[in-house]
Fold each of these.
Amino acid sequence: MTIDIGGVKIPDSKFASEVTELAREHTTPLLFNHSSRVFCFGALAGRDRGLKFDPELLYCGCMFHDFGLMKQYSSEDERFEVDGANAASDFMKQHGISQGDIDTVWTAIALHTTPGIPQHMHPVVALVTAGVEMDVLGMKYEQYSEAERDAVTKAFPRTPQFKEDIIQAFYDGIKTKPDTTFGNVKADVIADKEPSFRRGNFCCVIRESKWPA
């Protein structure tokens, strides 16, 4: 796979190629293209922020970050983020990757839906989340040029109804284990003490993002 977007290249080593092959085989076209865009946007963010990172580790984190939504990788009682992180860990161990690098990728996947923390961590951890936040929520949309956005979506197209499709994919992946969705307890505390408090809604942010679809 030879794709160069603004100086960002999809890794084409044997390891990265096997990551690509596994992602194509075991996820859906929707999630494969989404994960590929996450890498592109994450790598572009890293370039613009002057961060030093291993593109293969970033690619692995991005391509595995939603594996936990797939039935064959989904456990009965772990968060889907942990399932995806475990899948990446198992794969990397089979390829002789160092434990330190495995831990970095595991953390990047496990924290990709936990805002406010990843940006303070290792660049791979920060950039997986940056890519997800851009592709799903349109965060920092203006910081990517129109040419970059167009190039990424041309290489890895969004579906015509991507926002609704990705919400449905999340639902399908977690609906059998709702207890794993317990999240930010601080919002619960404020809501308990302030009846007028309106907490943020992930789905509303997706639908209201600056992406056209």
Amino acid sequence: MESENPLNLKEDDVVLCTVKRVEGTTVFLEIEENGQGNMIFSEVSPGRIRNIRDFVVPNKKIVCKVLRIKPGNIELSLRRVTAKERKEVLERYKKEKILTNMIKPILKEKTPDILEKIKEKYELADFVEEVRESPKTIEIIKKFVPKSKLEELKKIFFSVKHYKEKEVKEIIKLKTNSESGLDDIKKILKTDKAEIRYLGSSKFSILVKAKDYKIANSIMEKVLEEIKEKAKKLKVQLEVK
């Protein structure tokens, strides 16, 4: 299988991929804007895989890490991607989809070309924030779009419905055999920085809301660090799913 590398991927880069097919013990993937790659089953998940379809099925989007780049072949891994890396890539993809959906009804068939021009100057996922925060909004927009569309796009960029509070979510599992286990877990999860809910089977969801993802991620890291420290002190087993 031939594989291109138009954007000069490097080893350890984390990329969004789409599963194309599974043949034998190899998963063939389309790398977002970077051609094709493949992944052997041992890089899908640590340990024994009982059903490969629990992890990869055709058309599913997954976040992978670049292991090796060889002539005609890009080797990828799913199991080596951290939860933080996966979250960052998926959030960036979500932002890019939002931008595309915002401008497509106005720019129609010109949308792909406009997006390419924007990507030459800005991170596509952060372009809308750049426009909204700049005192020269129109000056930025007019570099990329027809003059007749400026005001219409400006209104879209500042539309409230596209800018709800950003959310970051984690799932953790807490287990203990201590007689004071319930009280210990309550102490571990006590925080005013996040919303925590019990999901059953010793699992809990942690939800952080903020005006942007960077702030939300930063708060989440602090919350998780506090939980880890308290769990260690109380000898409660912690697993971040």
Amino acid sequence: MSANYTQWPAALCIVGVLGLMAAAPASAQQFSPSETGAVDVAATVDFMNQYIFRGVRQNWTGMAMWPAVEVGVNVHSGEGALRAIRVGAGFLNSLHTGDTGRRGPTGKLWYESRMSGSVGLRFAGGAALGATYTAFTSPNEMFTTVKEIAVRAALEGRAAFGVPLDPYALVAFEVDAGPGDGQLDGGLHAGRYLEIGIAPRFVAGRVALSVPVTTGLSIGDYYELAMDDRTFGFVTVGGVASVPLRRGLGARWRLRGGVHYHALGAATKVFNGGDRSAVVASIGLAVSH
């Protein structure tokens, strides 16, 4: 996403590319209870004041809109050690009204297009393992194409004191990158990234609440600053609420919104114009069938 930003005026600063998970529409690592051969489709649209990817801000003015769709197929389900195998494909877009979009150098709204393909395994006991290939491109040519392979391990439903925590770890590798090209930080070397997180979940009436906590780290040239790799990227603490709406057109609809606080490390602080922290607020709609 933003390998070329150091070549733009300082007012635009450095931006990066969006990756797996983290976020994504509905993550391909989460399994639906569908039987073998069943196809599930999820679509989302979210609106946010800022788009921050792994500690790197993608817009300084205006807002970002994320229309996304994901299709998954359960190719295996059983009662043994391997409970399910799922393959999926996702398509997420980031549309910007401000300086990296409509009011930017190109005057075009479509800042980012993210296409991904994934394979996920679900085991007895709630353990899950998945691999995803993602390509991040910029239709308005605000960053060079970034390609990434990510592996995610999770313990779905794992709880402490009766509260589901859903711990996970994600390792991502930038591929087919060169100096200043195809990298989040615009550095000399392709990066390797580690993300660790939990998401305690609660239910209050019809409202589902979660408190995701995420830490992003470089395990090799992911946050390069002055030719020096900085290990700590960010910590994010959020609050997300989701409310089911009345079923319609044979689908399930949910209204969701959240606020996330980002505390930044030495490199990401520089990438964000000297800001030590950022707050992102969002609201959106999700539908699944």
Amino acid sequence: MSFTQSVYHIVFSTKNRKPTIAEKYEREFYKLIYDLMIGLDAHVYRIGGMPDHIHILVDISAKNSLAEFVKKLKQESSFLIARNSLFPLWNGWEEGYAAFTYSNKEIPNVISYIKNQKEHHKKVSFIDEYRNWLVEMGVSSDVPYFPK
């Protein structure tokens, strides 16, 4: 019998980083995303974010590659959100994403971090946060996906 555990902290932003996730309806927004991930056979630990980006802590099924999982999630969610009258400003997701792996013992800290996004972003911008993660993970600022 095979066993895999692939816990990812996935982050991606709205198109042009526009604040199109209305805080008033973010619970409905995250529920839609949650339901899609369950349909992709994932275990969702936490979803949260800001009006211009989303954080997801999820264990994806071995039958999905990370790239395929994110592609399906972004495509299907964008389609459903665009049809939802609660989000009239919705214009899709930005290309690309970031994904970081974590062990079981790190899950509670990442959940707490995602829960506290609003407080966190009073001090740190999304771009600065993203740069900090890349540096923390050992990514050189010379690579093309390092935000300028």
